[in-house]
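Please check this record.
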Amino acid sequence: MRASRDIVTGVGAAAAALAIVFAAGPPAAASGKWCNHSVCIETYDTGTYLGRVEVSVTNTNQPHRISARVWTTDGWSARTKVEDVAKFRTYRDHAYPQRRFAPGTRLCAEGFRGGASVGLPCVTLTD
């Protein structure tokens, strides 16, 4: 009986630790890459300064017209180029904010494949 109680306690502790990591969300205190479905956003700068942001959209086995939109919650936004992409190729483009944002600003990128949204990763910028 004691062994099964220890296993349940261990599983509960692991679940609690995972919940804490998940609830914290991904801060962008350093360069990194964050993905949601078929779209990834990658930053190359540290802290709240963003010089370049890369957006990638994974294509399916069909040719599609692909583009993306990048924005922050403080009003900055940019659209990437529109590109006709052959099957099984990843589209990549960059946006260049070249500015410092307030800590807590959210950076998001939405990718479009054939006019439909296929992912929306967001990250919170921190010092």
